[in-house]
Amino acid sequence: MPSRASIVAAVVLCALPQSIVHAQTPTANGEALFHGRCSGCHSGAPETGAPAPDVLRQRSPQAILEVLANGSMRAQGASLSGAERRAVAEYLAGAPVGGDPTGAASGRCEKPSKFTLAPDSAWNGWGATLANTRAQTASAAGLTAQQLPQLNLKWAFGFPDATSAWAQPTVVGGWVFVGSQNGMVYALDATSGCIRWFFSADGGVRTSISVGARAGGATVYFGDTGAKAYALDATTGQLLWKTQVE
After folding, report:
1. Which domains does the chain have, with CATH numbers?
2. Which of 122, 132, 195, 235 is the least crowded, having the fewest Cβ atoms under 10 Å away?
3. More confident of the two residues 227 and 181
4. Which residues pair with 197 in a beta bridge?
């Protein structure tokens, strides 16, 4: 049976005209973050063994961002949001990273749409079954193993400011919900791949998103690498609540 990972290859950024996308787009002070989180080691003191700020300033902002996201400082970078890692990199390098950190400068859906929760979706949440088999029945998949070689790529989506994808996509009600290593959570149209909304979490998203019903709508639930749990409105992406998990 095809696993949910098989649909990752079908994830796309469509260059459609912009429309309103509800999102949380935080700003961060790179200088304050560096002195509060990094300067204890990166002070220039020889006993720390860490590169001094003047050494770090010789690197490009992209190189610093990569080290924080995937390199030797990945553990320290995991405590920062995507916006905060970018701010630290830009402060040290004295230059902007470049590009759109959300990926939504293009690719937004042309028309707004209200999300409707589909009952008994086989692609909602983690594992597909209580046994965490991460496999689908033929009826849920809608295709057979023999048909796989006949499939053609319909669209693909690239996560900005990220080089790894940890979270599996959730497909419910014709929408795709997926989180990125950079902490961005996206709602995409499953047919075209255009962006319905995006949200910036405080840390990277490692697992699948779960969608549940609530009075008057539906809620998107997920957690981040900073041990925070979130609830967002499924139609708009607006934050309903977040809490620190003990």
Report:
1. 4-24+102-244 (2.40.10.480), 30-93 (1.10.760)
2. 132
3. 227
4. 187
